[in-house]
Structure formats: C-alpha cells, structure tokens
C-alpha cells in the first residue's frame, strides 16, 4: 500500500514535468526571439530530464518490467496524473509565462520540501532539481514584471492569461489520501503548508508588475486523478505518435 | 577477458581524460562529472553525475568510458548515474576555470553556496578582460551556460553559470 502511494505520487511528479516539458518544447524555433527560444527549450529540457529520472524510479518501484519509455509514451490519457495547469495550451507568449509563473512558484516550494524527504531517492532527485527550478522561477518572474510594466498590449495580454489560468491553480494544493499518507510518513510535504508562501510570491510579483491578483474562487480539479481537459489528448497524439505508429521502435 | 592488473585507481586515471563533448577543453574529471571507480570483485563500478538533470552528454560519456576500457580488455564495467551530491560548479578546479577562460567561456564567478541566481553583474569578458558586460540571456547554447555581451569589445560570449 505504502509502495503504491509512493508510485502514484512519483507518477504525478513525473507527469507534471513531462507534460510541461512537452508543452514548452512546442516553442522550439517559434520563440519570440532567439534568446527566449533558447530559454524555453532549455527549461523544457530540464523538465524532460527530470521526468526521465522520475519515471525510471517509478518503473523500479513497480517492478513489473515497465520501462521509463512505457510510462512516458505508452499510457492512455486517463493514466496521466498531471495538473490541468501544465497541459493548458500555449495560446500566446503571455499564457506561456503565466502558466510557468504559477507552476514554477509552486515547483520551487515543493521540491525544496522534497529535498528533506525520508525517501532517499526522491530526496536526491529533488536536490538536483531544485537548483533548476529556482532558475526557472527567476527567469519567469523577470518576464511577468517586464510584460506587466511594458506596453498596454503586453500588460493587457498578461492580465488576461493570469486571470484565465487562475482557475487551475487550486489543484496544486489539493491533498488526497496519497498525499496525506506520504506527508504523515515524512516522504512528501503537505502542499497546504506552503500555500501561503506560494500566494505571497504570486501577489508580490503581480504587485511589482502592476497586475491584479485574480479574485475568482472557482477552481478546476481532476488532472491528478486522470480527468483532463481536451488539451491533454492533443498533446499525447503528437507526443506518442511514433510509439503508437511504430510500437517499440528504438533508435 | 578480465584485465586483473588494473586497480580501480588506475581505471579512474584511464577514463579521467575523456573530454566533455560540449566543452572539449575540459575533461570529465575537470568538470567533476567523473566521481568514483570501485572494484567489487566482479565489476568496475564507475560513478558519474550529470551537470544538469537532462544533460545530453551522459550517454556519450558512458559510451566513451566503455569504449576506452574495452581497449584495455576490460568488459566488466557498470556505470552508475548518481544525483547526490548534486553537481555544482564549486567542483571546478582553478585550472579548469583558467582553461574555460582561455577557451572563450567566462568561468563561474562565485561559489554556488552564495545562492545567487539569475543575472550576475561584473562578468569579465574572456577575450578583452573588461568587466563591463551585459546579460543577453539567462539561458545559452547548453544548459550550463548563459549569454553575455562585452560592452568594451562588443563580442558576445558564453558564461558558465554558477550552479
């Protein structure tokens, strides 16, 4: 039971990294300018690397000859347990930044806590990842402030994206039996414990960017249990194409 | 065939000169990627650590290690990828930093323990040594670098980020 909880928790972490990495990699060669194109793809690479390490660990926990590739490429939509936030479409640059802002602020707090995990493998992965997470957040906050204080157009677009994606932020702090069980055993934190910290980063940054903190309190849930928005299907149809068309293809 | 003449220290030295594929002026030992070699009576266990989680050089380096050991008749080697302690630029030796600079990459400025992230001021241009430079991008051609421009000689250069 304990092992099942940990397995599912690791899959959730890995799916967030994989799906956000896949989303960001869609920008490769389509960035607003060369340096930002490199930034987006660098961040995407960090997430995909993290997903690979986590899937590898999950596959070992499950011990049924599953490989990291099986987990990444050969599951159905309902088996993916990522937040709805990370699967949301790129729309425009403001959406990419708003999504990254909400997620990175959370990701830094979560992985910082995970460095203290009693599970040694998870702690070692977190110690590696947290350095990268901090760098992503710094970069993203720079953009929030720059767009918010930029032109009327950039401010308007970022405020739109900040408002539109707000409804997906509640899910990051949803705690079910798996989370509670793991936090009781000091394997993972209770995300509610750092929710105030997260809100502080968000509201301080928005204030510096002369943007408004959304007030809408309606939150969307489901991703962590495999119930997704239509976006995920589109991601998977592209991401899994090769393995679906040519099963078990290797380099 | 097992080459029983070599101890783990000798094996370490054999593979320590493998150049990093992305920064060939540095070896995997200079960078701190090669951590350890241990003999467990069956295998040489080689421990390496990636600079960044998704470092694409790891498969290349693993293959190089095996290729070189094969040349010495060693086929019983296991490569472990370790994540802890997490790789840090603090492991770069003074010599490695000098080599980086001569190669045209500005070496990391301070210890990663300072926990300063993002843009850094006062990065010296590796070409003209001017300390007047501007950050162009937090992210460069590889995960471990950022892009700067020298305000004096106007050359664009890579900076090896503190990590």
Q: What's this model, at a glance?
A:
The complex is a heterodimer of chains A (251) and B (163). Chain A is mainly alpha-helical and 251 residues long.
Explain what this protein looks like in three dimensions:
The complex is a heterodimer of chains A (251) and B (163). With 251 residues, chain A is an all-alpha fold. Helix content of chain A is 66%, strand content 0%. By secondary structure, chain B is an alpha/beta fold. Chain B is 23% helix and 21% strand. Chain B has helices at 8-16, 28-31, 57-71, 94-103, and strands spanning 34-39, 44-48, 77-81, 105-106, 133-137, 145-150, 156-160. In chain B, the strands form two sheets. Chain B has a four-stranded mixed β-sheet with strand order 4-7-6-5. Chain B has a three-stranded mixed β-sheet with strand order 1-2-3. In chain B, strand 1 (34-39) and strand 2 (44-48) form a beta hairpin. The longest helix of chain B has 15 residues, at 57-71. The N and C termini of chain B lie far apart (41 Å). The chains are: A mainly alpha (251), B alpha/beta (163). The interface between A and B is medium-sized, with 27 and 25 residues.
Secondary-structure blueprint:
The complex is a heterodimer of chains A (251) and B (163).
Chain A: H1 2-25, H2 34-62, H3 68-73, H4 84-87, H5 93-114, H6 120-148, H7 152-166, H8 177-184, H9 195-208, H10 230-239, H11 241-245
Helix pairs in contact in A: 1-2, 1-8, 2-6, 5-6, 5-7, 5-9
Chain B: H1 8-16, H2 28-31, E1 34-39, E2 44-48, H3 57-71, E3 77-81, H4 94-103, E4 105-106, E5 133-137, E6 145-150, E7 156-160
Parallel strand pairs in B: 2-3, 4-7
Antiparallel strand pairs in B: 1-2, 5-6, 6-7
